[in-house]
Amino acid sequence: MNPLPRLPYSGAVDADGHVLEAPDLWERYLEPKYRDRALRICSDERGLEYLEIDGRKSKLLRNGFPTGLGFMDRLAGIVYEREPRTGIPYVDMAPLGAMDPKERIQRLDLENIARTILYPTLSILWIAECPDEALTQAYVRAYNRWIVDFCADSEGRLVPVAQLSLGDPEAAEAELRRAAADGVAGVWAPTFSWTRKPVAHPEHHRVFAAAEELGLPFGIHPCFEPKWCAPGRYGEYTNSAHAFFLNVTAPDAVRHAFTSFFEYGVFDRFPALKLVVLEAGAGWIGYWLDRMDAVWESIQGRNVRERLEEKPSVYFRRQCWISGDPDESSLAPVISAVGADRFFWASDFPHPDHPPEYVPNLEKLIEALPEPERAGVLGANALAVYGLS
Question: Smallest Cα–Cα separation from 73: which of 110, 46, 47, 36?
Answer without folding.
Answer: 110
